[in-house]
Amino acid sequence: MTTSDPRPPSALTIAGSDSGGGAGIQADLKTFAAHRVHGLSAIAALTAQHTRGVTAVSVPDPGFLRAQIDTCFDDFRITAVKLGMLANGDVIRAVVDALDSHVPPAIVLDPVMVATSGARLLEADALAALRDQLLPLATVVTPNLPEAELLLDRRIHTVDDMQAACEALLAAGANAVLLKGGHLEDHGDVVDLLATSGTVHEIRHPRLSIEAHGTGCTLASAVAARLALGDDLRTACDRASDYVHRALLGGYRPGHGDVVVLDHF
Ligand code: PLP
């Protein structure tokens, strides 16, 4: 790939489909489009889902997932990959193999484990594969606090705990961590930390009391879109976080349950 390549940058999401259109592949593609990035998708899991929860999950054959990924790399200029719901260890191994052979310039790992509604989106015994095999491949990992607690097997109650958790994730092999503080029991601003080896950058937004669905997917795919366009990591995370804040402010309620963020404005 050279800079004279006439193809525009594309971003590939490898994630789960949300039939309700609020999270997963559907949120990712809308976010890519809102950032004027061509979006590609390799579907790693199918969920029957609405704004109140997940009612069924089906996981495609890992060989078919690999075919989707290889076919995308065979034609498009993929400048960033976003990883979301990967369901189980077989899927994770297929993704690791594919990333090892295609080596995209940027990888954003959203370590999706459990939906807000409580549904499991990653089998419990796949946690080690995600941490040991995928984490070191990612440019940045974007856990929320419950996900960071599961990855590290420790509780996180304060911003100081968040800082220590970032250090522990870097020590576990992460290249950079965007730790989202929205679940902290605090009535002040929401604080997210972007940590790389030797630096911690704080991203702050006023806390919104909105029960929303798909914000984690939207944030990670916005980071991937900004990286795909050539932003450095810090700028990408600042802009993505701002984007999610504005998308939440414009959110709406298409079903009986959670708000879905507004991806186009
Ligand atoms: N469904 C799919 C397919 C997802 O990828 C995600 C992402 O985290 C979710 C559901 C969870 O969304 P939420 O935690 O907002 O319920």
TrEMBL record:
Stated name of the protein = hydroxymethylpyrimidine kinase
EC number(s) on file: 2.7.1.49
Q: Does the keyword Nucleotide-binding apply?
A: yes
| All residue ranges annotated as the Pyridoxamine kinase/Phosphomethylpyrimidine kinase domain in the record | 18-259
What Gene Ontology molecular-function terms does this entry list?
A: ATP binding; hydroxymethylpyrimidine kinase activity; phosphomethylpyrimidine kinase activity
**Which keywords are on file for this protein?**
ATP-binding, Kinase, Nucleotide-binding, Transferase
> Does this UniProt record's set of keywords contain Transferase?
yes
Broadest EC class assigned to this enzyme: transferase
Known pathway = Cofactor biosynthesis; thiamine diphosphate biosynthesis
Superkingdom of origin: Bacteria
A Gene Ontology biological process noted in the UniProt record is:
thiamine biosynthetic process
